[in-house]
Amino acid sequence: MANILSARVLCRCAYILLIVLITDAKSNVVFQPSYLVTSGPRLSAFLLGNTSGISLILSSLSLSNASGRLPTPSCSDDLTQWVLTQELVGKTTVRVQLSLNRSLLLCRNNNDTDCCPEPLCVLETLRVSACLGNAPQASLLIQARIYAQVFPTEPVSDNKTVIPNQVYRPLGSCPCDLTVGACDVRCCCDKDCSPEALKLFQGQCLSGPFGGEVSPVPDYLCIAQSAENAPDWFPFLCVISLPENNPFLGLFYEGDTITPKPRPSFQRPVLSAPLPTHIYQQGDPIFTISDQYFTIPQNSLVGQCVNNAPVAFLKNFQAQCVTSLLSCPTGPPLQTTPTELRVQVRDGQGGVVTVDVMDKMAVDLRPFVASPVAEDGRLLCENVTLALDYKFFWKGNGLTNITLTRTLGNVLSASVSLPLTVGLTARYSVVFLNGDALAQPNSGNPGYQVGRPVIGGIVDTLENGTVIQRTPVNLWKPVSSGLCASEGRIVLFGENSTAGCLLPVSLQNLTQCSLLSQNVASLQRALSTATHIARNGDPDVLNLTDWLNISFVELNSNQPVGGGIGICSGIPSHRHIHVRSIVTGVVGGLPQREIQAVEVSDHVSTWKFECGGGDPCLELTGIQTFPVTSSITFTDISINTGPAKTRFQMNFTEYDCDRNDVCWPQLAFPLTRYYTGESYSLSLAKGLILVFFFIAASVLGTPWKQIRQAWRSASL
């Protein structure tokens, strides 16, 4: 019976405990945070726990006059100037938001209603109660202290911050006053702090200049320590300075205007209008006569091609733009006209220069077309702009001339029947050259430098006298399929080289050997038309002594040129140039070379038309290619101005002072007048001292001792 009663008691206790736990679980809600202080018109908090059936009540509070305490929480709604909203952000989380439903503008006159009559616009205490039915479960206290918004009467330009000059005016009488219209804790000089608030931290005010008080005297000043506790060395090392020279003054900026830096953005930047300058400096953009940027296609940092990129002064570059040619281009930059390219550009000196356009046709399209295609079914695009090469001639801070070489070519593009794309690589370059457009770069100063072009010339007789017109010295240059190009390869000083190409000749040409020989000789002469060669790398076109006549070796005219059907002998297929030079001196560690003589000779060969199969050649229209070559050789002439070597110098080279580090014949060189390392009297004195030590060592040494002993024994 007792066991039954005990079981009943336990069941009732468990039932009561379960009811209590369920009741606590229903009312287990809390605000986070539970207390807020706000100085703005918006705030938010979170209600955590089982929020089912929970309602939020907002009320305005005031202190009781009798007890000075806040009233107890209640679930009675009150009319306030705040708007309460709630948002469920989780199963057990509710975001509570309050926003002020009034204007914070300061009233300008007494007739305004929706405004703040005083700078302290809102000063009240709020309570948000979480109620389950009529029973409050949790509460959130809010202290609102909001000041009116004051806007500047004058428009603010560029959002710049002006910092006053510290030499004439301090940055502020209270540097620790960081919040406008609010009391900063521990800032005793803050004008916004009420006397009641100052009493809370009056003993904990910020020290030093940041607290608005006089900073303590630094230890290194002479007035910092008294005579009793100062060390003995302190008067010698202390600093004599006024107390007003506070080291914290260096933490402030002097008077300046700070412009905010632009932040990175993914939006497309808006380019401002260009500002033309009177003179050009390195890196400045070049302007046209209409005050627009002078632009040509260039490569960007990511490798893409920008068609309208400005050209910078004294900035050379090379760019390649790859385009998939689906059809023939109709506009720039692949389809241009000379009129469009003859742009008038400001020269930077108050004048205007016009771009001088020169056209040339590209024979070899391989540098421009990625994959040549067959002509069947393709569209032929004529006069496509393949390259634009600009040369800007500058002097000082301006431009003197601009030349443009436009390379054109006929390119096959895609068609409807053959929609394959054609990769076209257009090339663009800009080079800035110092001087006038008529001036040409030198090959050294004064002598030739290895790797520079050899300067040739042609005599031109004018009214004022004889002038040498510069012209390059060229070798043959092959193009597509090894055929000869219209322009040769420039000869570089000191570099021996041989070049050649193929010349197409028909069987009909081989029946007229004399005419063929004359035509080949004309081609060899047209390759390099120079009749004079500059002695040095910086010749004067008006001074004929700076130029040498080229010596041409004539061929034997009596040599037969025929040899049968399809065979011609005596064809001048090879031209050789022999240049002799000497070293005249050294400037800056570089040897200066001067050309002494130039000889040009032709070498003949026999051309035979190969018909194949051993049958006689009957088709006169057949064509076969024959090689034509050219070469150049540089020879240094050694100059020996010294006397001839003796037989002793030839046989006993170990005694030659020019070949060995040890030179016995010059052992007494410091005692001669030619030694300039120190004064003659000092070197003579040192030499005599050495002689004295040598004599002393000889007298006191072992050989002299033996001589004395032998002398004594002989006398005895």
UniProtKB/TrEMBL annotation:
Keywords, sorted A to Z: Cilium biogenesis/degradation, Glycoprotein, Membrane, Signal, Transmembrane, Transmembrane helix
One GO BP annotation of this record: smoothened signaling pathway
GO cellular component: MKS complex
Tectonic-1-3 domain span: 279-413, 444-601
Membrane-crossing segments per the record: 680-702
Domain named Tectonic-1-3 N-terminal: residues: 153-256
Subunit structure: Part of the tectonic-like complex (also named B9 complex).
Protein family according to the UniProt entry: Belongs to the tectonic family.
Protein name: Tectonic family member 2
Natural source organism: Salmo trutta (Brown trout)
Gene transcribed to yield this protein: tctn2
